[in-house]
Specification:
This protein is α+β, with helices and mostly antiparallel strands and about 150 residues long. The longest helix has 24 residues. About 40% of the residues lie in helices and about 25% in strands. The model has no long low-confidence stretch (mean pLDDT about 90).
Length: about 150
């Protein structure tokens, strides 16, 4: 396969069944190396790359306040390598001490996951996402208060 057909294969796999829901096309993904798309409560983030294992690949994130977050590296053959995403729920401990430990582990995991996704270019800067996603991040990381909404003008 050549690079263009590899990119088409990766993008088609990423969007399979969701093009209309996300209002995105294969051409949209191929046209931008590192993109973010916001539509009806969805945030889609992607970054093209290549390595010795997969050759051309697409790191792809989809998130919605009701559907959660899914993040994977997609190879031209359609295989996915899942990338750590923030956890939406946490276990409760049987004792206050165990609960404190579990909460601390949950918040730390989520802080690392959000930082990694930003480093990969799959999330916009803190506060620049859809409002409900910013609130989710604050709640899931213990980050404190959400920044004020950014102007879209």
């Amino acid at each position: 396969m050549n690079k263009n057909s590899d990119m088409i294969a990766c993008a088609a796999e990423a969007l399979r069944g969701f093009e209309a829901i996300w209002n995105l096309s294969v051409s949209d993904l191929i046209a931008v190396e590192n993109g973010h798309h916001f539509h009806r409560g969805w945030h889609i983030g992607w970054m093209w790359g290549s390595d010795e294992v997969d050759g051309c690949h697409l790191d792809f994130l989809s998130e919605h306040r009701m559907a959660g977050m899914s993040v994977a590296r997609i190879a031209p053959n359609g295989s996915r390598t899942w990338i750590a995403a923030p956890k939406e729920m946490r276990r409760l401990g049987a004792t206050p001490e165990e609960d404190d430990r579990l909460e601390s582990e949950y918040l730390e995991h989520n802080r690392r996951a959000y930082a990694d996704l930003r480093r990969r270019g799959l999330l916009p800067p803190f506060g620049a996402n859809i409002g409900s996603q910013v609130i989710n991040e604050v709640l899931q990381t213990g980050a404190g208060e959400a920044p004020p909404p950014q102007s879209t003008s």
